[in-house]
Amino acid sequence: MFHPEEVIFAPTGRCNLACPHCRVSRGRGELPAGQAVAFLESCRDGGIERVGFSGGEPFLAPAFLSAVCKAAVDLGMLFDRLMTNGAWWKDERQLRSTLAGLRDAGFDGTFGLSHDAYHGRDPRTMAAFISAVFELWDRKDCVEILSVRSPDDARYMAGLRELAGLLGGTLEEDDGEPLAIVRADGPAGDAPGDRYEDGATLRIPILRSPRSAGADEGSWGSPRWFEDDFCAGPGNVFYVHPDGSVAACCGFANENEQLILGTMSDGYAVLCAAAAENAHVRACYETGLNAHRQGLETAGRRFPGKTADMCFFCDWLCRHPRG
Ligand code: SF4
Ligand code: SF4
To answer: Which of 52, 74, 138, 196 is least surrounded by CB atoms within 10 angstroms?
Structure first.
């Protein structure tokens, strides 16, 4: 059952980059901070404790970030990830003053740095961003790199090694897969997670995901259907789009109208009630998309093939409601 545990604000759809795999609609307006704070209060009253940020590039809306972070601190909420490409700044002065504003507003969550072959940023730009974060927050465990696999990651891997070196670290790898950037002379141990918990030691986990195909690209070649996880990964959030509409998912299908519950001005209780009445949301979170698929097949619906990617199927269904 859909039960939101976090609010994610996407204050703007604008971005300084134009990644080829981007699925964000631009030109959907900008979130007003005052309305966002009112919505946050409603969510806090409803029991939500965490807040995060995405986009577009959220650092292109620094005043919004400061206002909402201050409100979140006042409400006693916890910060989750702030997703960023880390390359939105024009010079070091702007980088540091913008980051300092966020720190002073109370943000103490994790920087989710989108960095992969598609983003294609210079390792020196990433190193400057990460170093500024380390310095201003006075700790080195507040950055994660989130990357999407690409068919040819060799250049990206070379860039990661260069980035690790620029940060005074080394790249931990396992069978060609990047795991983390860690201090070159870090203490040895059995479990990487046990080794770097003091906040002072360099550790940047690298979280990899396959590139999910968009509904238009097709991903129907699997020998078997996906397994339902009831959106345990990216689900159970209120995702607030730049136009104020609220989706029941932070995954890549969340711009489809089937996953839109209402707007920020509806508030927590009305949006939860809308989720409980929403057939697509219930299929994703409650009954399972496989059961929904089987029901459609019994009713005569045919699909182009099988897919092992639940979110791809969710997106495809939204975009092809009648087959
Ligand atoms: S950084 Fe993110 S929002 Fe910007 S173009 Fe790339 S994928 Fe899209
Ligand atoms: S199945 Fe749909 S609602 Fe669930 S996480 Fe994936 S895209 Fe979001």
So the answer is: 138
